Amino acid sequence: MAGNPLLPPLQPLPMKDRISMVFVQYGQIDVLDGAFVVIDKNGVRQHIPIGSVACLMLEPGTRISHAAVNLAATVGTLLVWVGESGVRLYSSGQPGGARADRLLYQARLALDDDLRLKVVRKMYELRFGEPAPARRSVEQLRGIEGSRVRGTYRLLAQQYGVKWQARSYDRDQWEAADIPNRCLSAATACLYGITEAAVLAAGYAPAVGFIHTGKPLSFVYDIADLYKFETVVPLAFRLAAQSPAEPEREVRLACRDLFRSSKLLGRLIPLIEEVLAAGGIALPTAPPEVVPPAIPNPDSPGDAGHRSR
Asked: What's the fold here for domain 15-93?
């Protein structure tokens, strides 16, 4: 994997041009003959164009080699270890996700109460299409948001003719959950996966949130919620109305097509920047030695007096 010095340097695809996600279950992921492949129990290989994928979801029964993890990190593809059908998220990894300058900027906004409130008010405005009520704290806005979300669930259930009680289920008894909740959980898991990939690609920390706090993906939930009710939630209710035999699989395939047709990945990073800019402070200037996330330093065949390209 050292690379040929005569070949042009590796240039990972921009996030906006990538396939949103690929799910892998019951297979060995490895790098063979320079290709990223999945090998099933019969020895059959399936090639994955890893450099054009934003997020690789690894379901139970999947094993991955060191070489495969290294290649995924090199091309900037996020690896996410999820439960069956993607309804739980256990871990994720992409080296170089958060940059120091972006992380300090994000942390300053989150730690200052006034700046944080400005960001939260911007999120409220983007989500509901109207300014947030005046003189409300973050906690009060969170409560208002929760009430409106519950109302939206009821309206969508009525629109699609779905029997709806509440957003509630037991993770340890997943098969006993009703179809609408299973569809919603699978859909939001897909959205969280590509949102986390976008957050990391932009150089920010998934854990440093503004509305959501105290969780490893707090900022991911903040950003995903801005698109949730115009993308995956209506899709989940539409599919739930059809009583699918395999709800998680149907939702996953539909989300893949929706993310591609709506070009959601290309919209996420500008959205992140717009939300944080509402704090009203300047983004710190990156130091000259900063390395972009998940992009290796190019090797030059010449000495210090020659250009590398």
From this structure: Ribosomal Protein L15; Chain: K; domain 2 (3.100.10)
